[in-house]
Amino acid sequence: MTNTRISVFSFALVAATVLVCPSLSLAQSDAVTRADFIEEITVTAQRRDQSLQDVPVSVSVISGAELAERNAVNLRDIVGLVPNFSYRDAGNNVQFNIRGSVSIQTSGFQEQPVSTYVDDVFKAIPSANEAVLFDIERVEVLRGPQGTLFGRNSTGGLVNFITRRPGDEFGGYVDVQYGRYDHIEAEGAVDIPLSDAVRGRLAVKLIERDNWQDNIGNADNAFNPNPVGPDPDNEGFGEISSQNARLSLEADFTQTFSGLFRVAYHKNRNNNYGNTGVGGIDPDRFDPNDGANTRFNCPANRLLTGECLFVSGGGVVFPQPPAADRDTVKVDVNDMSRDLDMTSASAELVWDLGRSTLTSLTAVESVEFLNYDEFDGTDFFPFGGDRGDDTDQFLQELRLNGSGGSNDQVQYVAGLFYLDVDSSNDDGKTPSEPTRQTRTTESVAIYANVDVSISDATTFILGARYTDEDKSIDVNIPYSGASTASFSRSESDSFFTWRAGVQHDFSDAVMGFATISTGQKSGEFDTPNSATGETNFFKPETINSYEVGIKSSLAGNTATLNVTAFWSETEDYQFGGPALDPNTGLPTTINNPVDAYESSGIEIETMVHATEDFAVSAGPVSYTH
After folding, report:
1. Cα(595)–Cα(156) distance, integer angstroms
2. pTM of this prediction?
């Protein structure tokens, strides 16, 4: 899409002065030198404010300004800015991959090895990643297992979006873009100081786009048991309609007690683009014991006669002869929804206790997501899937940050964490024949991390976390004209994860670190059997990771070079491989088919500032084996 960006106005006076007259801002201080070109970046990767170059963690930071310049709308748009970070769109959820750690599960209720947070609030349901990004201060991407400090264990890493806080002065911005297919994006925010102690901020983002893909399919054919004929009102696919808003209120109740309250709403009404091929697995070439390596394409003639297997998440796309052009498909449905309604609210209360700070984070969230896909990409017969999630979550965290020793040689973080998630899911081959299931997760954890400086240059790191979880599932299959099948099961688990390392400052500009980290991704219930409703509980996924890295500021603080090398071993990989159920002979999936696998690689991030206003990045560069 070719976009034309129109900056309507920016009424933060100081920012406008710098943008319009950068030479004026430089002339105001003779002290500006090349050493001032790189602004210190503050991150919270260790649950406390630190400089990016001082953190012994593999973390990448993307500023809100860079997100805006790259027109990043959602999490998919930032993967190219971070080493060893990619994604796979699985229809009703987006699966992110850090250092090769990715879930192949396609059900929208299963947690991923790469966790997502917004303002430190964990997003339990993967479909929450469909929410549009806007008014972001920065994004922090932590690579490697996060088994100690953050609210949920993850074997691959995590992404934390930090939104902009209310400002002390009245000001704001509006940005409008226009592109092909009447694509309009409008974003804006305004700071509203209510008093010396109370500040508010309202941010909104709207996106609209017409369909870009024509559908010439005919639903009236011999393979369709309910022929409806061509729809003269069919307008095609690709339409987007999204409305998003966030209200933030910050209050200083006393000099030592403050609160930050946020309420956000996201609404998407998107019409997916159409598939262009049929999928299937040839049963003659499929080995249930080696499902990962025997996903062969099934011939079209066998698929049309019902002889092929289709395993959700495991089917391989069979190429269909291309249409006259890429913008045309031939399918037998007229609407492929990808709808999201998400409401969230959070309260962050902070008490300054002198040498320590106590933080209480309380958050609630409700997510409703509906995704309908047309799987086969033809108009031969109706073959689609309707998947919907309705999830409510409650989160509570208490965190104590502080320091000890005569010269603050000891820095510590300790906390308690509680999460309750209730999710109902409709997952079936048609909207009228869903598999209905309800899942609950209750998780309680205690954690601590201590950094002890034994000299001005050397610091030892030690952290640990203990987690206790209870999970349950109830399944109903109300197939039309058939008796209802039901199934219930519950599981409990507890585990201990830890991190240890050392950090050494070779100079004021060069820091090195070495760490050992462990992580665990909780066990989960598999997609229920489509005939019986029964489901397996696959084992937790665990990881041991070893890292060495160096972070350096070079050439008078005008350039940075950060390099990390890692090696990790993952056990009981939660991979959903296709298989045949030995009891029913029906397609199903097997989990934890890989006892263990190893991953290693290197990551390089560089930035060179030629002037205060011009920087060049030669990365990120990464390699994973």
Report:
1. 17
2. 0.80
Burial of 455 (0-12, 13-18, 19+ CB in 10 A): exposed
Q: Which residues contact 80 (CB under 8 A, 6 or more apart)?
A: none
| Cβ contact 249:241 at 8 Å | no
Give the whole-angstrom CA distance, residue 267 versus residue 246. 12
CA distance 75 to 167: 26
Distance CA 527, CA 231 (A): 34
- The contacts of residue 544 (CB under 8 Å, 6+ apart) are 516, 517, 518, 568, 569
Tokens linked to 209: 């786009």
Q: How far is 249 from 165, CA to CA, in rounded Å? A: 8
Contact yes or no for 249/197 (Cβ under 8 A): no
Given a cut of 50, is residue 6 above it in pLDDT?
no
Rounded-to-integer distance, Cα 487 and Cα 578, Å = 22
Other CB atoms within 10 Å distance of the CB of residue 426: 16
Residue 228: pLDDT above 50?
no
Residue identified by tokens 């409700």 is: 366
> Of all residues in the chain, what percent are helix, strand and coil, respectively (each to 5)?
10, 55, 40
Report which residue type is found at 370: L
Give me the pLDDT at residue 275, please. 53
C-alpha 321/C-alpha 331 separation (Å) is 13
Give Dmax (Cα) for the chain: 83
- Distance between CA atoms of residues 565 and 557, nearest Å: 23
> Whole-angstrom Cα distance, residue 605 to residue 550?
11
> How many residues are there in the chain?
625
Higher pLDDT, 568 or 620: 568
pLDDT reported for residue 229: 46
What is the pairing mode between strands 614-616 and 594-611?
A: antiparallel
pLDDT in tens, 9-53: 333 333 333 233 333 333 333 333 334 555 667 777 777 777 888
Q: With cut-offs at 50, 70 and 90, classify the pLDDT of residue 431.
A: very low
The Cα 264–Cα 343 span in angstroms is 6
Beta strand 240-252 pairing with 214-215: unpaired
> What whole-number distance in Å separates Cα of residue 473 and Cα of residue 534?
10
CA distance 313 to 102: 13
Name the nearest CA neighbour of 102 among 157, 179, 21. 157
The highest-confidence range among 46-50, 192-196, 266-270, by mean pLDDT, is 192-196
